[in-house]
């Protein structure tokens, strides 16, 4: 996590105390527990140097985060109670990202009002942190969707199609992770799986690439090469 995102997250959490609480109840995903109330994160002003509103979308990435690894850094953050203390998630959805053809990507393309409490709750078993939901809508959803509801519904459609493979609570190569995803999801392209690592080659994200019609495609780059040995943070129940 960058220092800038740490500061943004802290600001969102500080402002969230004035946001309306979630009152409506929605059906939950199997194995997911949510608190009785969920407070949406407030809207925020993005850093000026991160706004990229003029870059066309060339492909989409669905970014899946390995929740146990994220919880190594975020376990003490109250915004991550649902992810890191209440539930024992494997992968959670980081977000659906419009990407440019090269290294420059659409980002913060327009105004991003606060997400409604009902929408936050509806997607909190998929992306279980209100601050992350607001950030994904602001940074990525505004670059292709008119409303947060439309953005998260598209993300959920793709998310629901992904079957999560079982990963060992130890080490495996990046190639073995790709093989596991393809075995569980035969529709995926092996070259369409980007793997992000953090310090010491720890698994953080598995990202799946799609074309503009949401068909699987090869990613422009694959992140960690097949030969890299990954450390996989174990789930609490593991």
Order of secondary-structure elements? HEHHEHHHEHEEE
The percent of residues in helical segments reads 25-40%
Q: What fraction of the residues are assigned to beta strands by DSSP?
A: 15-25%
Mean pLDDT: 89
Query: What is the number of helices?
Result: 7
What Rg, in angstroms, do the CA atoms define? 17 Å
Give the structure's gist in a few sentences.
The chain is an alpha+beta fold. 29% of the residues lie in helices and 16% in strands. It has a single domain (49-231), classed as Ribonuclease Rh, Chain A (Alpha-Beta Complex), CATH 3.90.730.10.
Structure description:
The chain is of the alpha+beta class and 238 residues long. The protein has a single domain (49-231), classed as Ribonuclease Rh, Chain A. 29% of the residues lie in helices and 16% in strands. Strands 2-1-5-4 form a four-stranded antiparallel sheet. The protein is globular and about 40 Å long. Mean pLDDT is 89; it is low at 1-27.
